[in-house]
Amino acid sequence: MKKQFAVIGMGRFGSSVAKTLSNLGFEVLAIDSSEQRTQEVSNIVTHVVQADSTDEEALRALGLRNFDVVIVAIGQDIQASILTTIIVKEIGVPKVVVKAQNELHGKVLAKVGADKVIYPERDMGVRVAHHLISSNIIDYIELSEDYSIVEVQAVGQMVGRNLRELDIRAKYGCNVMAIRTGDKMNIAPHAEDIIKYNDILVVVGTNEDLKNFEKTFAE
């Protein structure tokens, strides 16, 4: 049985999450206090409800406890975000994911029971900054406080050499998890695999090691 999701808050982030989950084939309930915002996603998600998420009775009536995951994506109203998180957890939702505005907001959310706190603006800022460092940095994803994954486009000194010659693990302490050539993904690259122009290397390591790796191969 597919997971059921409820997304509270149909701002840019919430509506994007709801639409993506719906496009992936999941059942999605979209909730917002604004009639206009609910109408904007009504033809995309499974169910849409106009409701005040700080009203416990209203949320209970929606049967939120039967959903696998609830995403609290409320925008600027930090108080409403925190109160909604408390209510959703008290209702008995097994997993609650909440968008935070800043670190302090995130700490409060964690204290009141959020299972996962996400920082869309901060994370996007990090990814954009890494892309700006070098044109061949395709993407940057933080796994934890200390570890990340970076996608690097093969150019310059990488091209025409194999993984053994590049010796990325020994030189930088990073591991090449996969190599993407066009639409093909090699998820178990061998030491003798030759890197071609515009291949994408998926590299994992500590943030410090990845920083040194990026600087070396920046173009």
Tell me about this structure.
- This is TrkA family potassium uptake protein.
- This protein has nine helices and eleven strands.
- Strands 3-2-1-4-5-6 form a six-stranded parallel beta sheet, sandwiched between helices. The protein has a five-stranded antiparallel beta sheet with strand order 7-8-11-9-10.
- With 219 residues, the protein is an alpha/beta fold.
- The chain has helices spanning 12-23, 35-41, 56-61, 78-91, 103-111, 120-133, 163-166, 168-172, 207-217, and strands spanning 4-8, 27-32, 47-50, 69-72, 95-99, 116-118, 137-142, 147-153, 175-181, 184-186, 200-206.
Provide a quick synopsis of the model.
This is TrkA family potassium uptake protein. It is built from nine helices and eleven strands. The chain has helices spanning 12-23, 35-41, 56-61, 78-91, 103-111, 120-133, 163-166, 168-172, 207-217; strands at residues 4-8, 27-32, 47-50, 69-72, 95-99, 116-118, 137-142, 147-153, 175-181, 184-186, 200-206.
